[in-house]
Amino acid sequence: MERSRPTMKDVAIAARVSLKTVSRVVNGEPSVTPDTEQRVRDAIETLGFLRNGSARMLRTGQAGTVGFVVEDIGDPFYSALSRGMEQVMRAHESLLLSGSSEADAAIERKLALAFCERRVDGLIVVPTSTDHSYLLPEMTAGIPVVFADRPPGRIDADTVLTDNVGGSRQATAHLLAGGHRRIGYLGDNPDIFTAQERHRGYLEAMTSAGEPVAEPWVAMGSTTTGKVRADLTRMLAGPAPVTALICGNNRISVLALHALAALDIQLAVIGFDDFEFADLLHVTVVAQDPGELGRQAAELLFQRMDGDSAPSRRIVIPTRLLPRGSGELPPSAL
Amino acid sequence: MERSRPTMKDVAIAARVSLKTVSRVVNGEPSVTPDTEQRVRDAIETLGFLRNGSARMLRTGQAGTVGFVVEDIGDPFYSALSRGMEQVMRAHESLLLSGSSEADAAIERKLALAFCERRVDGLIVVPTSTDHSYLLPEMTAGIPVVFADRPPGRIDADTVLTDNVGGSRQATAHLLAGGHRRIGYLGDNPDIFTAQERHRGYLEAMTSAGEPVAEPWVAMGSTTTGKVRADLTRMLAGPAPVTALICGNNRISVLALHALAALDIQLAVIGFDDFEFADLLHVTVVAQDPGELGRQAAELLFQRMDGDSAPSRRIVIPTRLLPRGSGELPPSAL
DNA sequence: TTGAAAGCGCTAACAT
DNA sequence: ATGTTAGCGCTTTCAA
Question: Which of residues 132-191 of A touch B (CB under 8 A)?
């Protein structure tokens, strides 16, 4: 049943023209008589011809494809980022080759190199690995690389980041302005870049407001139900219990909200990262803009692909505080 | 700065062997002396050689790539589906070329054909268009196509679907078993396949239980805040107000929950589709398994790519009812 | 075990 | 306006 695919040559024979004329029609080059053009188009239609992209690419060196390596494309944050990229790519008639690294440095590397082997025109990476020197030969060979959400390791390259420090500072300042002084911080694993930055923003805001931070108020690596519950208990025990809480990412926000509900405790809460239904739950958050992260990364990439060879750039996307109730509870209400 | 990329020929010269020997090493073919192999590997390392995938593909006809056309990769449901596919693809050493159609039939077509032009080994499509005859030449030429989540239009092809009718029937039966008789249904736009199916499941369950369905209880196209609110008001007005509600998808569930909260009305509620934090909100849902949908679609595709040419198959993935409270409210409590 | 030659399907450069 | 030739970088086939 499986007819072998017609090539330009087959079309040329069917239309009684030369191969090059078919190529002209397919590529919309001028200087083809309407009459011949029609003959060629008919032949294309009849045979069901579709140009072979690999052959074309081998000749032109242009893939019309961008590679995207991310931790998990199923994560809403990254799929929103991916969507932002796609908007820009569509405008540039480029397609997306994507793969999830599953937070495994070896997979990240494998994917990135597989994309380079396919000669993508550019690469956008949400890094998991801390050493990207493996990309140096590719970058030298002319494949531009932009890092998104986290900075690269051991190489210098374009990077687009969320203002993690600023967002966290903003959340802390908001709670301080609301009259809170004993503010707890529940962070992600401290070897994650964004976790460090957000933690730092909290500390900076407290310090610059002249507020002390007691040791039991801060817990990093609160990524399980048990750990969150224990950390909260510790924050609330003793003579100086916290009256407010900042959660370092949306997974932690959910765990903390669950735990607070289970323990029947009221606290002012601000989460870093917006999440679906946070509005329904009246949770105040510092929202990132993953779509914008993706758009900016893609824009920058296309600039590089267009030959911009200025020194590497770092773009920082601001966050927005969305007050919804949970972050506006006064300390007196608790 | 931009050195042109080394080819196998360059490597061959540097290692003082023939081009074919380099090819053998790169492809792990046997019958190469350890000594020569080492020389070649050294040259590859030194030059930073990376095989050109297009050239390879042009020769072999194997892309090692699968195309994926979806409505919106940023939608959590589809990104979960995509992740399921990816698991299978990783096992088969294949990469994913993906694109969002934005529910536009023209974009869907353009993306699918762009993938075919790149000679993907197979195609997975979440259809938006209702006419997929444009894929016939490609399928004839040997590119297997599997449709996911919705069936294709005007062609016969492999399809993997959720049991929409069954899930909806299950939700209705659950409410009936809980003592409800006046059950409302808030559905999506009726020209969407899944919306029709779910609506049908509801009607079937009511009918087979011998329960009448009053006209104001059913509303399709409830996709905006205003429409949902109006539909709910209508369901609750009159002599026979509903005591329970089924929401046709998770977007509608959220709108309905918002509206019910705003109107300060209590109803038993079951949503079709699980959503993040539905557990936190105690919302009973009929959960689909998008990951499984993706895995099955990919498995089926790989079978076809491996030469399976049996008649086209239709796989139906069952749903699961997750009782969390909102669907277990007895009518007497309202 | 290794190499030489041909050619995959297309486009670029150069005729006509 | 159309055609001819060469060659992109690799794998396949065949020979040494």
Answer: 137-138, 140-142
Residue B276 belongs to some domain of the structure: yes
A255-268 pLDDT, tens digit each: 999 899 889 999 99
Give the pLDDT of residue B220: 98
Q: Say if residue B33 is in the same domain as residue B74.
A: no
Q: In terms of domains, do B39 and B104 share one?
A: no
pLDDT in tens, B125-184: 999 999 999 999 999 999 999 999 999 999 999 999 999 999 999 999 999 999 999 999
Query: Is strand D in 7 Å reach of the CB of B52?
Result: yes
| pLDDT recorded at residue B3 | 66
Claim to verify: residue B253 and residue B206 sit in the same structural domain:
yes
Co-location of A284 and A295 in the same domain: no
Q: Where are the beta strands (DSSP E) in B212-329?
A: 218-219, 244-247, 268-272, 284-287, 314-317, 320-322
Q: Are strands A183-186 and A145-148 parallel, antiparallel or unpaired?
A: unpaired
Is position A137 within any domain?
Answer: yes
More confident residue, A334 or A213: A213
Residues A170 and A272 occupy one common structural domain: yes
Question: B329 and B211 in one domain?
Answer: yes
**Is residue A97 a part of any domain in this protein?**
yes
Query: Do A27 and A137 share a domain, yes or no?
Result: no
Do residues B180 and B275 both lie within one domain? Answer: yes
Strands B218-219 and B183-186: parallel
Q: A299 near A286, Cβ under 8 Å?
A: no
Contact call for B86 and A99, based on CB within 8 A: yes
pLDDT number for residue A73: 86
Write down the pLDDT at residue B200: 98
Task: Flag whether pLDDT at A90 surpasses 90.
Answer: yes
CATH code of the domain covering residue A325: 3.40.50.2300
Q: Which domain holds residue B72?
A: 64-162+290-317
Tell me whether B26 touches chain A (CB under 8 Å).
Answer: no
State how far the alpha carbon of A16 is from the alpha carbons of A9, A11, A40, B99, B280, in Å: 10, 8, 8, 37, 69
- CB < 7 A to strand D: residues 199-218, chain A: none
Strand order in the sheet with B158-162: A314-317, A158-162, A145-148, A122-125, A65-70, A95-100, B95-100, B65-70, B122-125, B145-148, B158-162, B314-317
Q: Is B54–A54 a contact, with Cβ atoms under 8 angstroms apart?
A: yes
How many distinct structural domains can be found in chain A? 3
Please state, in angstroms and rounded to a whole number, the distance separating the CA atoms of residues B143 and B96.
15
Could you tell me the strand order of the sheet in which B218-219 lies? B218-219, B183-186, B244-247, B268-272, B284-287, B320-322
Per-residue pLDDT tens over the stretch A126-141: 999 999 999 999 999 9
Whether residue B56 is contained in a domain is answered as no
Whether any strand D atom is under 7 angstroms from the Cβ of B13: the reply reads no
